[in-house]
Amino acid sequence: MTMINRTIAGKELLWFNNTLVAIQVSSADGEDGTCVIEHRLPYGDSPPLHVHRNEDEVFHILEGRVRFQVNGHERMVGAGETFVAPKGLPHTYRVESAEGAHTLTITRGPDFETMVRKASRPAERPDLPPMAMPTPEMIETLARLCAQNGIDLVGPPIV
Description:
Elements: E1 13-16, E2 19-25, E3 34-41, E4 49-52, E5 57-63, E6 65-70, E7 73-78, E8 82-85, E9 91-95, E10 101-108, H1 111-119, E11 121-122, H2 136-148, E12 151-155
Antiparallel strand pairs: 1-2, 1-11, 2-3, 3-10, 4-12, 5-8, 5-10, 6-7, 6-9
């Protein structure tokens, strides 16, 4: 399955860990710093449990199913649904649909966008990157970039 559609086409494409992202609206584009990032996520994708100190993280699911965990509670969210991970609460997710997921992440302020940009590399093609397990160096770099941008890694991904 090609992980690209017209809404990503024409935008700068980045590989962020094992995902494909496009910054649809930069926090610098408007007065209140709203950022919208489009993600293509593979089956099983799960970031480390983390806390945003300065911003809520809003997820809108366009395709697929994602299991969210916030402050120890879980909820399955599917296409057409929106979920909020409030700032200050530990959260993560896991993509549960075999075909992966297509989402929008909305935040306010530059922290999340800055971290994503600094932790990413230009996508070599408009598809998911080759799947790779993070090395200790990659984990250390991600933790440092998160901490510099108001995000604390506090636990493992969902397995």
